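Q: What does the assembly look like in three dimensions?
Context provided by user:
Components: two
Sequences:
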Amino acid sequence: MSQVKEITASSLEAKAFIQEKAAEIREIVGSGVAINALSGGVDSSCVTMLGHKALGDRLKTYFIDNGIMREGEPQQIVAAFKKPGVNVEIIDAQDDFFSALGGITDPEEKREAITQTFYKKVFGNLVKKSGAKYLLQGTILTDIDETVAGIKRQHNVFEQLGIDPQEAFGYKIIEPLVQLRKDGVRKVAQELGLPSSIFNRMPFPGPALSARVIGEATRERIALVRKATSIVEQELASVKAFQYMAILHNDRVTGMRDNKREFGQQIEIRCWDSIDARQARPTQLPFSTLEKLASRIVSEVPGVVSVTYNIATKPPSTMEAV
Amino acid sequence: MSQVKEITASSLEAKAFIQEKAAEIREIVGSGVAINALSGGVDSSCVTMLGHKALGDRLKTYFIDNGIMREGEPQQIVAAFKKPGVNVEIIDAQDDFFSALGGITDPEEKREAITQTFYKKVFGNLVKKSGAKYLLQGTILTDIDETVAGIKRQHNVFEQLGIDPQEAFGYKIIEPLVQLRKDGVRKVAQELGLPSSIFNRMPFPGPALSARVIGEATRERIALVRKATSIVEQELASVKAFQYMAILHNDRVTGMRDNKREFGQQIEIRCWDSIDARQARPTQLPFSTLEKLASRIVSEVPGVVSVTYNIATKPPSTMEAV
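A: Here is the predicted structure of the complete assembly.
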């Protein structure tokens, strides 16, 4: 378990970094094949381009459709990578993920179920199919910090927890971005020629929308939070914020519709100002925006009678609720 | 089951109303004794003064300390009524209420447990002790509307649900304010000489702080929401709003403290602009106020890592969450 040496965004020389990491990847993979999973986030997008630069077609890139992505996300991401010549194959694994998530309410158990399904089941099959011995992934330093500190178990951190991926899953993991934080990754992504829609893309968690429901992540509850997420992302698209999100609560609250009591659902909105996700404070959105958000959510998301806006800072809050 | 005829605040002649209702109370009670429970809210305060005017010492007024009142509330209210010469006796019934609330999470079952404990157990004993045949209470028209519509079962509505209090509890209920809404009651309270701290007092629900916790209302959870309520009431005291409150959620959310993960609690703040509680919208509080509230709550209320502000309107929300 080696200590990772941080490269700060200000000291990072993106061009040299890319050359160096591409050479390292070529050396490790040799004449073999590597695979990676693209989620569309800046980290995995950056690793995809870096791996493509290093290995060309010997990198097989998959988009795992786990059923917990946002509206239209699989198609948009595949299309975005077609332009620079990267072929991405969509793998429909919705049933695997929903059956693994069934009955689980604890956030850490949820993350663990997704991790196991992703790395063992879905990736296990892809590795067999592709003949790859290496998995490229976009772990960054903040993932490791938070996992080691015990704040959140990031889905992509193993070595630092004493897990040997070779032994556990049958393949080796290469993590070229592990010395960087989000701001450094953005510089590399830009240098790699990724469109700004990707390198300026808002962070989105590994467990995707399952991290956006408190309690069990069923197909029905994911559909509700997906709808609320679309509304929040539409309404806040022009806001300069680090990250914004909708969270479906498990608690029921009393509401009324058509003059009848409705014991309904609650959506929480979070919108964060932050530099590097280590500290954050709520964005001071105008009340007209908050009211528009609430009004659209209660009318467009079935069963929702109440909407809140998070006003606490990180710490003691975290960016995500789950 | 008779239809109640509304008296609007604008058409209300408070002085004449008081004369008329006092005469009615005297006629019904005759030479007997009546009792009433003072909660300190404008409705029960108004009924206490009206009953005192009608019956003098033949009205016995009790403050039921159910363990779910706000910080220092029993003492403050007894002191406030000492001035106009009304003696209020505090009845410690905390054990009765907490044992009735044990294990209950559904809002309507919670209300029902409080109703039963209040009217049957605690009031049953007081009626025997005092020899009273009549209970005066401050039911208003909105309570009846909401109960009949099935939105919320107000703790003090019986006749409209087909319940005969005489049969169910052993005493008759007199409701002199039943034609008024909140704004009308305030006019009567002012005319009766109640201090503005009472007649302008914010509405507070019958089930008190048990309506401010989602899920089970244990002693420990009530203590947390009581602390949060004090902070909200201190910080918003100068805000012109219809009502403000703190709500303890049952959902747990991820937070961090001392660099360690804390699966903590969430407090929701609601602050409503409204005329008569039938419709309401969130008060546009300055962000500096929201941040101050959040910062005090996460540091002063043990285990709370997240704070939200409600941004939905009524309908489809209701003022209270429970």
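Follow-up: Chain B touches chain A through 52 residues (CB under 8 Å).
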